[in-house]
Specification:
- Two copies of one chain form a homodimer.
- The first copy, chain A, contains eight helices and 14 strands.
- In chain A, helix 2 runs parallel beside helix 3 and helix 5 packs antiparallel against helix 8.
- Chain A has three domains: 49 residues, no CATH class; 112 residues, 60s Ribosomal Protein L30, Chain: A (2-Layer Sandwich); 167 residues, PurM-like C-terminal domain (Phosphoribosyl-aminoimidazole Synthetase, Chain A, domain 2, Alpha-Beta Complex).
- Chain A is of the alpha+beta class and 349 residues long.
- A seven-stranded mixed beta sheet of chain A has the order 9-11-8-12-10-13-14.
- In chain A, strand 3 and strand 4 form a beta hairpin.
- The relative contact order of chain A is 0.18.
- The radius of gyration of chain A is 19 Å and the shape is globular.
- At the A-B interface, helix 1, strand 1, strand 2, strand 5 and helix 3 of A face helix 1, strand 1, strand 2, strand 5 and helix 3 of B.
C-alpha cells in the first residue's frame, strides 16, 4: 500500500498520468497527496498512513492494506506475481506491527490467457499464503478483452491484528536512533529487470520475495516498543522509504554506505545501467528504526532468524540536515540521497 | 465479491480464459470452484462464501469483501466506475449482514489517461463513500503502459462489522419462506449497454448504483433473524443469484414473474436484444429470503425507506423441484430460469 503523509502538498497539476506516477517515487507522492488523498480520504484524520491503515472495530485493533500487482513478466527467478501478491501484502501488515490474519485476492485476467498460467499463479498464492500463515478467505475474478490487460493483474488486500506491544510512529523517531535493514537490497528489482531480457546482462540473482513477518516478530519479541518505525522498501527502494521517513519526522537519516548489504551482482548491474541500488525495489526486506540502546539486541535477534543472517545496522538518525538522507562513503565524502525520480524500472511489482 | 459454494465441483479443464469466465454466470462458477478455490483457499472451512467472508479477529466479528471494477465506459447515466467501486463493495458487506466501516481502493491506471478523468473518479469515490457513511482509509496506485489497461480499473475492498442480530445462511432457508426484491431490476446493465453506443437504441434509463445499506438496515431492524439470506444480484442478474441460492439450499425458488419490478424501458430493450431482464446486472438492489410470517412487515419496512417504494414480494421457497428456479407467468405457464450462460454484456461492473 502507498505511503501517505500529511496532506500538506499542493494540488496535482500534471495533465496526463504517466509511468512515473506509478513508480513509488516523487511523482507518485505528488499524485497521491495532491489528488487522490484530498478527493477520497477527506474524512481520515491522523498523521497519515503508512504501509497499512490502522483502525478499531468493536474492541479489535486492526490493520488493513491493499496493493495491486502488475509485475512483468509474470514469473521470474525466485518468484512470480502470485507470490508477490501474497508476500507484498503480508509484509505491509508485518511492518505496520500487525499479525497477518487474512487475505482477499481480486483478479483482472486478460481474455486469451492460458488456463495453465492462471493455475500456476493460483497455486503460487495458495503456497505462499500457507507459508506465511495466512488464509485466503475470498476473492473476485474479472475478465477483460484481449489487449486490455497484460496477462493478469492481482490486487490483494490483507487484514491484520495489531500487536499491542508495538507503537510505531514517525513521531517516535529520535535523534540517535539506529537504522537496521533485514538483508541485501536490490535483488528483486534487478532480477525482474533482467528477466525481461531487454538488457544484455545475466546475473545469478533471484527475487527476495518472502514474508518478513518472522523477522519482524523476532524484532518485536526482542525489543518491543523500542522499535519506532518500520517500512518495506518496495517501489522506489530504500532511498525512497528513508526520504519519506526523513520528511515525515523532520530529521536527518545518515547511512554508512558500505554497511548497506548489496550483492556484487546487484552492484555490478546497477553500475552498468546507471542505477543506484538504493532506488531498486525489494520484496522481502524491511528497514527499521530502533532505539540506539536496543540496536545490538535487535540485530542479534534478526540474525538468529533463518534468512536474517545478512541483517545489518546501516545508519542513524541525526538532527541535521533536517528532512534529508545522506550517505557517507567508506573513505569520507557524503552525498545526498534523493527519492526515486522518474521510473527507470516500471512494473517491478 | 464472488459467491463460492461447497467446492464439490470437478476440476476446471477449459484451456483458455475467455470473457464468459468473468461474467458471473455458469462459466465463472466453474472457474472459481474448479480452479481458484481449490488452489488458493484450501485452508478455509465452512459452507462456502457469500458476498463477503466473515471472520473473527480478537473479539470482533468482521466481514471482508473485495471486487475489481472494470466497467466500460467509465461514466454512464446515473453513475461511474468510482461510484460503483464504493457502492458495489458497500453492498456486498450490507447483504452479508455487516455495517460497512472502511474501504481501501487500489487503482490500475493506463499511462496516458487524462488527469481530469482520474480526478473525476476520485471525487466520485469520495462523494459515494461519504454518502454511504464509510471511510476510505488507504489505497494503492499502479500505472501500466498505454494499451495495457482500459483507462482505469479500481479494486475496492471493504471491511464491515457483522450485525449480531443477523444469522444469514443458506442453511436457514425453509420451504414457505418469502422472496423480496428491493426495487426494479436491470436498470444498471441496460444503461451501461446503451451508454456504449453499440446498439441502435436509446432509453430514458439510469444506473441504479447506490448503497443498499439503509434498506438492509431497515429490514434487519424490522424482522431481525427472520431475514434468512440476502444477496445483491450484480453480474448474472437476479436469475444467477437465485440459482445459486436454489443449488446451495437444495430447494426450489418459485418466482411470480409479473411481481418482479422491471421498468418498461428495460423490458423493451431486453426484448429487442434477446436478453432476459432476470440476467441483467443490478448495482443498487438486493434480494432477501424472509420467513413467511414476517414478510409483510419486512416489505412495509423496505417501502418506508427513501428509494424503497418499489420493493416487492416476488416469490417463495418450495420443496420441489429441488435446486431449480421456476418463473410462473401471469396467465399460467411455468419456465425454468437458468443461470447466466456466456457473456452477453461484458464489463458491466
Amino acid at each position: 500500500m502507498t505511503t501517505v503523509a500529511l496532506p500538506r502538498s499542493s494540488a496535482f497539476t500534471d495533465a496526463v498520468i504517466d509511468m512515473a506516477h506509478g513508480a513509488g517515487g516523487k511523482a507518485s507522492r505528488r499524485l497521491i497527496e495532491g489528488l487522490i488523498v484530498p478527493a477520497t480520504m477527506a474524512g481520515v484524520a491522523g498523521e497519515g498512513l503508512g504501509d497499512a491503515a490502522c483502525l478499531t472495530v468493536g474492541t479489535a485493533r486492526l490493520a488493513i492494506t491493499t496493493d495491486s500487482f502488475v509485475v512483468r513478466p509474470l514469473r521470474f527467478p525466485g518468484g512470480s506475481i502470485g507470490e508477490l501478491a501474497v508476500n507484498g501484502t503480508v509484509n505491509d501488515l508485518a511492518v505496520s506491527g500487525a499479525l497477518p490474519v487474512a487475505l482477499v485476492c481480486s483478479l483482472i485476467v486478460e481474455a486469451g490467457l492460458a488456463t495453465d498460467v492462471l493455475r500456476t499463479e493460483m497455486t503460487a498464492i495458495g503456497v505462499a499464503a500457507s507459508r506465511a500463515g495466512v488464509l485466503v478467505v475470498g476473492g473476485d475474478t474479472k475478465v477483460v478483452e484481449h489487449g486490455k490487460a497484460d496477462g493478469m493483474y492481482i490486487t490483494t488486500t490483507g487484514l491484520g491484528q495489531v500487536d499491542p506491544r508495538t507503537a510505531l510512529s514517525v513521531a517516535a523517531v529520535r535523534p540517535g536512533d539506529s537504522i537496521l535493514i533485514s538483508g541485501h537490497i536490490g535483488d528483486h528489482g534487478v532480477t525482474v529487470l533482467l528477466a525481461r531480457g531487454e538488457v544484455d546482462l545475466t546475473a545469478n540473482l533471484r527475487s527476495d520475495t518472502r514474508s518478513v513477518y518472522p523477522l519482524v516478530r523476532a524484532l518485536v519479541d526482542a525489543v518491543g516498543p523500542d522499535v519506532r518505525w518500520m517500512r518495506d522498501p518496495t517501489r522506489g527502494g530504500l532511498a525512497t522509504s528513508l526520504n519519506e521517513l526523513a520528511r515525515d519526522c523532520g530529521l536527518a537519516i545518515v547511512l554508512e554506505e558500505d554497511a548497506v548489504p548489496v550483492r556484487d551482482e546487484v552492484r555490478g548491474a546497477c553500475e552498468l545501467l546507471g542505477l543506484d541500488p538504493l532506488h531498486i525495489a525489494n520484496e522481502g526486506q524491511f528497514v527499521a528504526v530502533v532505539a540506539a540502546e536496543s540496536a545490538s539486541r535487535a540485530l542479534d535477534a534478526l540474525r538468529r532468524v533463518p534468512g536474517g543472517d545478512s541483517a545489518s545496522m546501516i545508519g542513524r538518525v541525526e538532527v541535521a540536515p533536517a528532512r534529508t538522507v545522506l550517505a557517507v562513503a567508506p573513505y569520507g565524502g557524503t552525498r545526498v540521497v534523493d527519492m526515486l525520480v522518474g521510473d527507470p524500472l516500471p512494473r517491478i511489482c
